[in-house]
Amino acid sequence: MSVLNIPVNFNSPFDDESTANDISDSGDTIRRLQDEISVLKTKLLHVEQKADADPLVPIYNRRALMREIGRAQVLMSRYDILCSVIFFDLNGFKNINDKFGHSIGDDLLIKIGETLKSTVRDCDMVARIGGDEFAVLLFKTNLAEAKAKAASLACRIAEQNIDMAGEKISVSSAWGVSPCYPDDTAKQILHRADRAMYDAKHQR
After folding, report:
1. Is the separation of the CB atoms in 135 and 86 below 8 Å?
2. Which domain holds residue 32?
3. Cα(94)–Cα(186) distance, rounded to whole angstroms?
4. Is 180:68 a contact under the CB 8 Å cutoff?
5. Are residues 36 and 117 in the same domain?
6. Cβ-Cβ contacts under 8 Å for 166 (sequence gap 6 or more)
7. Residue 40: CB partners within 8 Å, gap ≥ 6?
8. Side-chain-side CA neighbours of residue 33 (13 Å)
């Protein structure tokens, strides 16, 4: 058919088999790309989680702790909600490694880390920040509340033990607390808690 001698094709483009195939192929390509993006996101999440995890104890590491302290400071700055950090140091832990071996020491560290994690709220954070040093970040917790919680956690740490040939191997801890003031750096906050722990240990 023609209009003014100009050929006119009234067929829909979807009637063209090749065009329909092209559209079908495009849909398959989009679905395949979406699947690949989903896989990449899962892998990225796994890498991020691994980067935040302590290599021995199933808790967070120092890197993750410092980031979350920053988040706690934002809460204080925006909503006037105070958060606090507890710094724990295990007393005489080196002697345990020297006397019983690093395997026993590692088992004790794992047990202590798991105990700390199970004894705080889901919104709080437990991290291993050194060989025998742990930190607990308490959200919505003032200084007095953090000190009370630290004393309770120290008792739980002392209760943990490893049985070796009938001998109960355990360790006590010293602790210090610091508020997460927004004007400080995360490093300053952790250092203040560390210093409070050091002062408490040497006042005994």
Report:
1. yes
2. 13-51
3. 28
4. no
5. no
6. none
7. none
8. 6
- Structure tokens of 3? 């209009």
> Residue for token digits 């001998």?
167
Q: For the chain, how many structural domains are there in total?
A: 2
pTM over 0.90: no
Residue 3 located in a structural domain: no
The residue assigned the tokens 């120290």 is 154
Task: Show pLDDT as tens, one digit a residue, over the chain (204 residues).
Answer: 544 555 555 555 555 566 656 666 777 888 887 877 776 566 555 556 679 999 999 999 999 999 999 999 999 999 999 999 999 999 999 999 999 999 999 999 999 999 999 999 999 999 999 999 999 999 999 999 999 999 999 999 999 999 998 899 999 999 999 999 999 999 999 999 999 999 998 886
